[in-house]
Specification:
It is a single chain. The chain has three domains: 1-94, Multidrug-efflux Transporter Regulator, Chain: A, Domain 2, CATH 1.10.1660; 101-224, Response regulator (Rossmann fold, 3-Layer(aba) Sandwich), CATH 3.40.50.2300; 241-319. It is 50% helix and 15% strand. The strands form three sheets. The protein has a five-stranded parallel sheet with strand order 5-4-6-7-8, sandwiched between helices. Helix 3 (52-66) runs parallel beside helix 6. It has helices spanning 14-21, 25-33, 52-66, 71-74, 79-92, 110-116, 119-124, 139-144, 163-176, 190-198, 210-218, 245-252, 262-286, 291-319; strands spanning 12-13, 41-42, 48-50, 103-108, 130-136, 153-160, 180-187, 202-205, 221-223, 233-237.
Length: 327
């Protein structure tokens, strides 16, 4: 049977780090030997082996030196300090278009965080900007972490999904009140994947390209009506589903005291929009060629579903309808 024990920390040769970050090998060596930015493990053959933390640091050092910071002044800073400097710098830069507020992400998985912080990924996001507010190496450290800044979206990478992992993710969501959660995984039983989708999580199996990951992130944003023809999105995040199909069916079947049938119609509309939202998400997962269109369609249906859920709450308060069967 395959082992379920945690794997060893990934190690990367200096050439792989150079390719990932776009930093020349000679520069990486200077940053290591002259400024002490890294402390790679060395093999018997004198090959340098870097960890994912080193890749994260290299990306941030590259960003900050390109923005004018002296490598001598920042080489020995901790990763969290470099990340804060990068976020402050990004927020201070003028933009040619009127931006929405940046989408705030908490990320679990160093490799995933490295991808988000690369310039290549930033170009895929088009007009949307993101701010990584917290990075945890794995789910266990995220569970214990103190996240001082509120994030709208939890983006998490795990190798294997099991019921216990699902429960841990749900506890993390409740603790920090994330509006949406995107889970990237390698292996999982189908039943666990379906349970996670039903609970409102977006679940996607590796491999996933930068463009596909960007589309997933964009699909959780409210569509900006003023830029709908451009498939544009604002920085607001669509909340996960509030009501299960069973709750909506129960509300639709309740006899109403008002003359119209608004409770039934609104409940049915929410159920239909939620179904189309899920369908668009499945299309987004399966068809990379039309990913941008399906991200837009999911965002449209999710925005409408969220608005009608707010309407249902007002109707329920007026009619005294119990909506306690929340997901």
């Amino acid at each position: 049977m395959p082992s379920t024990a945690p794997t060893a920390t990934p190690r990367f040769r200096i050439g792989a780090v150079s390719k990932t970050t776009g930093i020349p090998v000679t520069t990486l060596r200077i940053w290591e030997t002259r400024y002490g930015a890294f402390s790679p493990v060395k093999t018997e053959g004198k090959q340098r082996l870097f960890e994912e933390l080193d890749v994260s640091k290299a990306l941030l050092l590259k960003q900050l030196t390109n923005e004018g910071h002296a490598i001598s002044a920042i080489a020995n800073l901790e990763l969290a300090q470099l990340r804060r400097m990068g976020n402050l710098q990004n927020n201070a830069q003028p933009r040619l278009t009127v931006p929405s507020a940046p989408l705030k992400l908490a990320v679990v998985g160093l490799g995933l965080a490295n991808r988000l912080e690369s310039k290549k990924f930033a170009t895929v996001l088009k007009q949307n900007t993101i701010k990584v507010t917290h990075v945890s190496a794995d789910l266990a450290s995220a569970t214990e972490a103190v996240m001082n800044e509120l994030s709208q979206v939890l983006l998490i990478k795990v190798n294997t999904l099991q019921t216990a992992v699902h429960s841990a993710i749900q506890a993390l969501i409740r603790k920090h009140q994330f509006a949406q959660t995107i889970v990237i995984y390698n292996f999982a039983p189908e039943a666990v994947v379906e349970a996670m989708k039903f609970s409102g999580l977006i679940v996607r199996r590796e491999p996933i390209s930068d463009s596909e990951l960007a589309e997933l992130i964009q699909s959780v944003l409210f569509v900006d009506p003023t830029r709908a023809q451009e498939f544009g999105t604002s920085g607001a995040v669509i909340s996960s589903r509030k009501y299960s199909d069973e709750t909506l069916a129960r509300v639709a079947g309740i006899s109403t005291q008002v003359l119209c049938e608004c409770p039934r119609h609104v409940a049915e509309l929410i159920a239909q929009l939620a179904s189309f939202e899920e369908y668009s998400q499945e299309c987004l997962n399966k068809n990379a060629d039309d990913a941008h269109l399906h991200a837009y369609l999911r965002s449209i249906s999710g925005s409408a579903r969220s608005l009608f859920e707010n309407a249902l709450e007002k109707i329920a308060a007026h009619e005294g309808i119990d909506l306690h069967d929340n997901i």
